[in-house]
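ok so i was messing around last nite and threw this chain in just to see what happens. nothing serious, just curious
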Amino acid sequence: MFLFSNFIAAVARVLDIALTLYMWLIIARAVISWVNPDPYNTIVRFLVRATEPVLYRIRRLIPIDLGGIDFSPVIAILAIIFLQSFLVQSLAQLAARMG
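result:
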């Protein structure tokens, strides 16, 4: 049983790291959108390709348009924080109870 407990704890930790990394990608994408980035820059293209699928779905589900300001990164970051607080913590507590 301790193997399954360790597995769940490891999944929780990896999920937490992945969500944190994705949150930083979204923050970087939002920051570069404040300037006029070169669309052919490899870093800009990577950030757009990595974050656009999630941000596009949020824009489509919640069409908030207040003077041309895009609130989808804020909503995505709040969703990531929710997942870290709920899902990751729940998995970690489940692993602790099983171990």
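not much to say yet. The mean pLDDT is 93.
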